[in-house]
Write a structure and sequence with these properties.
This protein has 12 helices and 8 strands. With about 280 residues, the chain is of the alpha/beta class.
Length: about 280
Amino acid sequence: MSQAWTVLSGKGGVGKSTVSVALGMALARRRLPCCLVDADLGLRSLDMLMNLHSRVVYDVLDVARKDCKLKYALIRHTEDGALWLLPAAQEGQPGDAGHGEMERIVKKLKKRMAYVLLDAPAGLGPGVSALLPASDHALVVTTPDDVAMRDAERAIALTEAAGLPRPMLVVNRVRPDMVARGEMYSPQAVASALDVPLLGYVPEDRAVLAAAAVAVVAFHISGYNKKVPGVLRSMWDRPAVCNNVGALTYHLADSWNTLTDRAARPKLSASELEGVREWF
């Protein structure tokens, strides 16, 4: 059975959207059909991160209002054929697509996708509340500082109030040198303080910012990107300890398949992927 995950943080700017895109690409490279839903109405970003902004015609709000069919709003990623994007509206605000509309959209997506990743807006307002009833699980992204951790704690409480299982945690923008000097919390300390399982952490990587500056998608997992080699250079060492975005997402994909007993899920062939759009 397919699963929908809400990726949330509470505090903005911690890298939630970056992790969402990288995870979606890693799953797609395994030929596990994945759809990223940008739920930050009015402040969409995933289309830019995926270099798909020039192809946006319809968006999730058009689908929610039944101004277009779902298949016309979906954008298939150019290089990762098992990855789709349902972009957010550039106008409007979080909460304009209510609980019922988001549940209807996610239910349709889950009929054909292995994973649906819902990139939630920052904060804990109606835009986040509308996503949780449509989700099966939650992934909380935070940075190792007191402000972000306090907001993450509130986000965790919100997921539990919605009846979801205990969320998993990704700690982003970790500086190992500062952790070693005692100037920054370790990822394990963050997970312990929040009392949630640590799925992985991502050390600070300037190459991610460099990729955004030159409009390069920085999450290609199969080979090095010459413009931003630092994103792909290191591989994860052991469970829950990952050295960059690409490595983390491979670990996440493996962990999710193990935790949800989905390793035997049939992968789609190239010809089957070509026909996914018509399923909607």
